[in-house]
Amino acid sequence: MVLSDGKGIGKVIFSSSLGTLIEWYDFYIFGMLAKTISIQFFPDGNDTAALLSTLAIFAAGFLVRPFGALVFGRLGDMIGRKSTFLLTLVLMGGSTFLIGLIPGYRTIGIAAPLLVLLLRLIQGLALGGEYGGAATYVAEHSPTNRRGYYTSWIQTTATLGLFVALGVIMLVKSNMSDASFTSEWGGWRYPFWISILLVIVSIYIRLKMSESPLYTKLKKEGKASLNPLKESFGNKGNFKMVLLALFGAVMGQGVVWYTGQFYAQSFLENTVKIEFMQNREIMLWGIGLATPFFLVFGALSDRIGRKWIMLSGMLLGVLFYRPIFNTFLKDTNINEWKKMEGNSSPTIISKEILKVDSLSIDNELATISHSKIKWQSQQGMGFTETRADTILNVRATPGVTKEDSKPVFTDKKLSSLMKWKFISLVFVMILFVTMAYAPIAAFLVELFPTRIRYTSMSLPYHIGNGVFGGLVPFIATLLSAGSPTDPLVGLWYPILIAALCVVIGTFYLTNKIDKNIND
Amino acid sequence: MNNLKKVMGFFWMTLAPLVIYLLVRAAIQNIDSAGTKDINKPIPWIIIITIFTPIAIGLMIFGYYSLKGEYDHLPESSDDL
User: Fold this and answer.
1) Which of A275, A397, A449, B80 could form a disulfide with A411, with the two C-beta atoms 3.0–4.6 Å apart?
2) CA A168 to CA A171: how far, in whole Å?
């Protein structure tokens, strides 16, 4: 039995999506508050704390998430979808709330980072189990001709969770001083505490929902799997589809998703050096405007099939990542900004000498003046220039200044027009994400039988997103270390993985929609 | 098309050990006690190589299945799995 009426399926989607949104919210706030968390729990200079910090970042994301997919996937196929994704929600929300209650390193010492690591691992585990349950639950309630559309609501939660997390943090931060926000029991803990309220609401809603009709029927007939792991990965016929799902679809989707949603923000902040708040504004607008397209492409996949929409999103990423990221760099080239004329031309609005060092060069006294200069144009463009000029006090010509040949430009603020250009480019990248990501839940659900669906689809999904996607920043740093002069070198990883996935998907996947998932 | 899949199967089988070799080589080159970045620490490499080894084995198996023609016809229903 599927729910074809709008009200019934609406409840199913709402209850599933709300929980998934909360899980993403919980996962994101840790990443967004990483700097403050690091100060509170993983202080510099302590090797054990540094080791635990690395483990908290890498083990939770890469190792535990696929493991969670196996643990909770198996449970979901054995005891049911509803109970399992209720459990993952409690674990996720509970861990987040508890992280917000742990005293800092200064108060309880090494126990603080140890507890954070433990709770972070539980979070990773729970995240690995949630998505498969929600996707399966919604898909098993959906009519065949709307499966892509209904499940695409779940895909929006990864983006909306980011949106909510960013919104809550900005709201808290804007209502207090930096010192109040970052202190041991400061405002940074509020987003963690808020999580418990969201979880309680979500649990209440989910408890009122009934089990998936397909799973209930299977259970009644005594056909539920007794060993989903063996049936999923020990049966050649099913295992080859798990491999195909991973290498022909989810691997590429994972890197496209991560590049558009996370790497772009980090690139704009750390490489392009856009001012902190404007960078967030660009990302929020770009993501917010593109999010409805999850539903558009989900619905479109019900009409024309899943395969080509997903692969088109990946291919567009392969073709346009370098031009888009290159535009970010070219448009913020300060040497070009300084050459502008009229209202666009930036002028110095303040200059502050930070310090002056004295030294001797070739027996002549020299001073190095470290200064910070703020520039702004009438159009609102601005930046901060940090430079170290050498002033040579040569007897013949005292006071000759050798200007710093490599000043550092930070806190770049774009004009309104330029800001909207950047928002459009982020929007385009998120559009690629919506194409690759929107049909994926329906695609995965249709690939596997009901009795082992939760297990079979969860593992490739979390390897694709957690491992392939999550590795984007690490591999980007690795590639940058090899070619430090090319700021775009880090893009080769998502481009190559997505290209590989497009090739595999094109030749191996079918575009046929499985009408009957009741098998 | 099926012949092409067989040829590609050989490529996937070769690619998998190559990826692991490149990762191990990159780990040896970048682990540096004096470095401060994540790529200079051994733990991320241990985790990444640990998780990528079964994935690479999966790619090899995928290539092997492809070479053997297992993907020539995809199942029409779950009964075919």
Assistant:
1) A275
2) 5
**C-alpha of A177 from chain center:** 27
CA A500 from centre of chain: 22
Q: Which of A62, A239, A519 shows the shortest C-beta gap to B51?
A: A62
Q: Give the Cα separation of A383 and A400 in Å (integer).
A: 27
The predicted model scores a pTM of: 0.90
Q: With both helix axes pointing from N to C terminus, report the angle between B42-67 and A236-245 in degrees, rounded to the nearest 10.
A: 120
Residue B76 CB: number of other CB atoms within 10 A? 11
The stretches of A331-410 forming alpha helices (DSSP H) are 334-339
**C-alpha triplet A470, A149, A239: angle, nearest 5°:** 55
B-proximal residues of A, 28-67, CB under 8 Å: 51, 54-55, 57-59, 62-63, 66
Q: Is A237's CB within 8 Å of B80's CB?
A: yes
- Chain B residues with CB inside 8 Å of A120's CB? none
- Give which of B2, B3, B37, B78 to mutate to test A binding, by max A Cβ within 10 Å: B78
Closest by Cα among A271, A219, A194 to A21: A194
ipTM exceeding the 0.95 mark? no
Side-chain-side CA neighbours of residue A158 (13 Å): 25
pLDDT (tens digit, 9 = 90+) per residue, A297-315? 999 999 999 999 999 999 9
Shortest alpha-carbon distance between residue A253 and chain B (Å): 16
The DSSP secondary-structure symbol of A346 reads -
Q: Say if residues A253 and A464 touch (Cβ distance below 8 Å).
A: yes
Express each pLDDT in A385-444 by its tens digit: 999 988 877 666 667 788 887 899 999 999 999 999 999 999 999 999 999 999 999 999
**φ, ψ dihedrals at A374, nearest 5°:** -100, 130
Which residues, 6 or more positions from A193, have their beta carbon under 8 angstroms from its beta carbon?
Answer: A97, A100
Cβ <8 Å between A510 and B74: yes
